[in-house]
Write a structure and sequence with these properties.
Layout: H1 9-16, H2 24-28, H3 37-44, H4 48-53, H5 58-64, H6 67-74, H7 77-95, H8 100-104, E1 114-117, H9 133-148, E2 152-157, E3 165-168, E4 174-177, E5 189-190, E6 200-205, E7 208-219, E8 222-228, H10 236-239, H11 250-270, E9 277-281, H12 287-300, H13 304-313, E10 315-318, E11 329-330, H14 332-339, H15 350-355, E12 368-369, H16 370-376, E13 380-383, H17 386-395, E14 410-412, H18 419-422, H19 425-435, H20 446-450, H21 457-485, H22 490-494, E15 505-510, H23 526-534, E16 540-545, H24 553-566, E17 575-578, H25 583-592, E18 595-598, H26 610-615, E19 620-624, H27 629-632, E20 644-647, H28 656-680, H29 689-702, H30 708-720
Helix pairs in contact: 9-30, 11-12, 12-13, 21-25
The structure holds pyridoxal-5'-phosphate.
Pyridoxal-5'-phosphate binds at residues 132-133, 136, 511, 581-583, 586, 608-610, 613.
Length: 736
Amino acid sequence: MDYNPSVSPAAQLGAKLPLPLKRLADLAYNYWWSWASDRIAIFQNIHPEEWQRCNHNPVALLEAVSFDRLTQVAEDPQYLKRLNATVTQFDRYMAEQNTWANRVAPRISIEHPVSYFCAEFGIHESLPIYSGGLGILAGDHLKSASDLGVPLVGVGLMYRQGYFRQRLSRSGWQEDYYVDNQFDRLPLELIRDPQGEPITFDLQVRQRTVHVQIWKAMIGRVKLFLLDTDRADNDPIDRWLTGHLYGGNQETRIAQEIVLGIGGVRALEALEIAPSVYHLNEGHAAFCLLEVARQDMQKTGKSFYDVEAGVRDRSIFTTHTPVPAGHDVFSADLMDSFFASYWPQLKLDREQFLALGARRLGDPWEPFGMTPLALRMTRAANGVSELHGQVSRKMWTVLYPRSTEDQVPIGHITNGVHARTWTAPLMADLFAQYFGEDWSRHVVDPQMWAKVEDIPAAELWERHLILKERLVAHTRLRVRNSRQNRGEDHWQIQAVDNLLDPRALIIGFARRFSPYKRGDLILRDFDRALRLLGDSDRPVQIVFSGKAHPADEEGKRIIQRVMEWCRHPSIQNRVAFVEDYDIFTAQKLVQGVDVWLNNPRRPLEASGTSGQKVCFNGGINCSVLDGWWCEGYQADANGQGINGWAIGEDAHTSDQELQDRIDSESLYRLLETEIIPLYYDQDAEGIPQNWVRMMKASIRTNAPLFNTDRMVADYVAKMYAPGVESIDPIFASVPL
Ligand SMILES: *Cc1c(COP(=O)(O)O)cnc(C)c1O
């Protein structure tokens, strides 16, 4: 698909580098480098400070570092040896034919790949086109699809400014701001025709023609196509269609979803890619189904209802939201103004068209729902955990009047995380030592993970302590920067040196600050919390991070309450808030905490994935039994947790006050009677033997299940190519 290799940005960058470093450019333009520490070091070692300044973006790094410095690197034989080994590994990876997917699902071919549509992709902190869990899941999906050799292309939007950035004022109030993405400094290639002109296609949005161009990011073997309306030949308003992720009002939202859904299908057509499967990751892209139908009608001359079954056969849908309010709906008015000229192309009248997205048929003013549209027009649908599957079946029974709740055709595939992205290098090294160098090819194999019991407690604990120190250092650095930016006093900035003790218990809480996630639950009984954190013998420390959506006043108030707490004189060294949560901070946190706290209002967490990342690093979950944790948590006959802790009861009440009281009470009790005593019960060498036992249980029981190799294999077997053999734990010859 390289339209003009002679001027590809990678080739241009390569031409500017000293000869022995030329291939660095190819590595820089493929995010494959980001999922192993030795590959990251190839860039980091060139210039550690610049690497940090560039937000770990290798293209920006190579543009910024002086030619003089690059030639110094180029005369270091050790460096060249490592670079060449990495390049060899990369070339082998890209050319590999004997992949897992080739063996089990040869019917999905690169000529007819799976197309995976999503409004956000969290690949790496240097490509800020994600907001939270949905995006990270999509990014991890692409990485595992690449590793397993699943022929798949991603389709998303290239946002000029991405998601908002977060700063907190002196009063702890979140201030939102946006930064321009510098496309020419990102590892992206604008797709061009053989004459070098950008390939574009047209869309009608708000009675205007919009020209859309396509960027390509390489995620290993997977191509991610990102649509962009920021072109000089577009109306100034339309240039901002792809300006912000989840910004603006309903009108911006629908316009954006038209670009993603309808535009996505047109982009694939322009690139001459004919997918065998359209996978809609969440409802945002559901308009894509209409466009596939339109194109089928055009090709065959058939009616909408005649092509509908064929569209459904090629389409699948993953839903992510367990509450009706979380699903995108557009008013009939809005639909009129955006689609009045589109439904005639489907040879439908207004009523027939709006019925496609209606929850209940027969009401002409019923809003148009993206989830009803997606459920009606796809062959198979799934929730993202077992519990979420149940909740979704219940919520959408309304669409299937002839079915009982358990007959509603929504199944589940539980989310996972990309093990190679989220495992700390020090832990990966330990796994390599005890499980074998190729451990990362076998992450779905429970027998491999059982060998975690062979790792001596002292070794596991030592590595964990180093990662805790790293987390503490990262937190101090970021808090210091924040205090400086806020213009705080000299002594307040100096005080950062005493923030957090790496030897003491550290709890992490980081995720979007949506009210249902109850970021301040642990503060509910202020005095009790103060006693726990302020204890001089057995202190408890908490690191918070996360953004509230700009329109979410309640979420911002929760952050403000947490910030007030961070300033409380008796515990100010024990609580910290890291501003501007992103993938990098997430990595430091999930790799360095002892306990990962998750206390959403049940059953509002469809899956959650951050707790899964923790397991690969020996962290232990303390979570409400919601989402994935219902499947992950194991207790013994006495109800004692084996691999972590469960907050509250399995049951739940609709009385929020009462639920908050029950859950916070349970959390305090767990901390006081189980977590704190277990952590501080350390032997003469300072090793908490029973704690380490639980760390091992956390790794052994969760890692083989909650990874995206298992998840993508499940999607292949159940959704993309039903009927193929399910998961083969030996991925063999895939040079990850
Ligand atoms: C993993 C991750 C999330 C999702 O966390 P949840 O536990 O699912 O809420 C959000 N943001 C970032 C940056 C992440 O890495």
